[in-house]
Write a structure and sequence with these properties.
- Helix content is 77%, strand content 0%.
- With 132 residues, the protein is an all-alpha fold.
- It contains 6 helices and no strands.
- The chain starts with 12 loop residues before the first helix and ends with a helix.
- It has helices at 13-41, 46-50, 53-79, 82-88, 92-104, 110-130.
- The model has no long low-confidence stretch (mean pLDDT 85).
């Protein structure tokens, strides 16, 4: 492939679902981040918290999950146009909203729903030309 010859990608619904699975994995790093931040809040001193198991385990989980995601992402961008793959990354917002509700009992407001729907609509528009 030269710079003047764009690569043709055939994106199927199966590929989009695989891409969403990758973003679910990525969104799990947000869960571990939230757990780590909650652990920090439970200590009187930041120095005490930084060396506690309750903080270090979720922190290492974040690094591990992001490492797995980075390896998979390198394979994903071989199969997709970068603009399509990156536009789909916005669905991580939706997955984070779902995890926040089910795991952390966070409130889902009308504004959050509208925002997530706008993001999903944008992703659908971007994918509509790519899916064949």
């Amino acid at each position: 492939m030269t710079l003047n010859q764009p690569t043709k990608y055939k994106t199927r619904l199966k590929d989009i679902l695989i891409l969403q699975a990758v973003f679910i994995i990525f969104s799990m790093s947000h869960i571990a981040s939230k757990i780590a931040s909650q652990a920090l809040e439970s200590f009187d001193s930041i120095f005490e918290a930084l060396f506690s198991i309750r903080f270090l385990i979720p922190l290492f989980m974040v690094v591990f999950i992001l490492g797995i995601y980075a390896l998979i992402w390198q394979q994903i961008i071989k199969r997709f146009e970068l603009s399509i793959a990156y536009a789909n990354k916005a669905t991580t917002l939706l997955w984070s909203l779902v995890w926040g509700f089910f795991i952390f009992n966070e409130e889902i407001t009308i504004a959050k729903i509208i925002g997530a729907l706008i993001v999903c609509a944008g992703v659908i528009v971007m994918n509509s030309e790519a899916v064949k």
